[in-house]
Amino acid sequence: MIELEKNIGYVFKNRELLKEALTHSSFVNGDHSRCNERLEFLGDSVLSVTVSQHLFENLKDSPEGDLTKLRAALVCENSLYEFAKLINLGHYLYLGKGEEHTGGRERRSILADAFEAVIAAIYLDGGLDKARSFVLKFIPSVKELKSGKLLFGDYKTILQEIIQRNPEEHICYEIVSENGEAHNKVFVSNVLLNGQKIGSGEGKSKKEAEQAAAKSAIELMGYETY
Among 1.20.120.450, 3.30.160.20, 3.40.50.1820, 3.40.30.10, what is the CATH number of 156-220? Predict the structure, then answer.
């Protein structure tokens, strides 16, 4: 816990809150009073308010629509997964044996949910200012936000928005391979534009592989991603 607190940059007065934030439902057989699901619910709200306020105060010339899209990119599962990896959050999770053996420590949804739970734990232990300080460590600088660079966002949605600028264009995804044992599969996906491959990627699930393929396509189009 001490090592994780160093990664987080916050020392808990009540470490039981941090332990709860790290406890997946599989570890306590779905006991919602002991796992991190309730904290995740609260952390989602704290995250949204913090990011919304930050964008509102620092991107004064941006219209509501742009702020909404940027906030969505910053708080989506892909972003939270990347943020969680920066503090090595997966290493500290309490998981049931099933999740442990099937790659739960690296699963996007589990890491993203735990990251939100940690936000809530900080909020309950130290207040909104401490939670806000933690969240803002992961938000790109105002200069980067204004530059229009893509973030860790939902790459499939971002690619769709790019393609929709030309109504006659059509994209689709196909899983081209599936390798490995049942508990540790690797999927490879291609993304096709009008039947032609424009990107490829792999992941531990079909969803992850499609997101990686979309990210690849976006980068090949000349956009910068994190």
Answer: 3.30.160.20
Judge whether 186 and 200 are in contact, CB under 8 Å.
no
Q: Say what the alpha-carbon torsion angle 85, 222, 149, 197 is, to the nearest 10 degrees.
A: -50
Tell me which of 20, 40, 44, 99 is the catalytic residue.
44
pLDDT tens digit sequence for 123-163: 999 999 999 999 999 988 887 777 655 555 678 888 887 78
Instruction: Let me know if 61 is a catalytic residue.
Output: no
pLDDT tens-digit map of 170-191: 999 999 999 988 778 899 999 9
Q: What is d(CA 124, CA 41) in angstroms, rounded to the nearest whole number?
A: 13
Distances (CA, A) of 26 to 12, 21, 23, 98, 154: 24, 13, 8, 8, 27
| Euclidean distance between CA atoms 57 and 72, whole angstroms | 17
Candidates 20, 116, 125, 208; catalytic one: 116
Query: Does residue 116 have an active-site annotation?
Result: yes
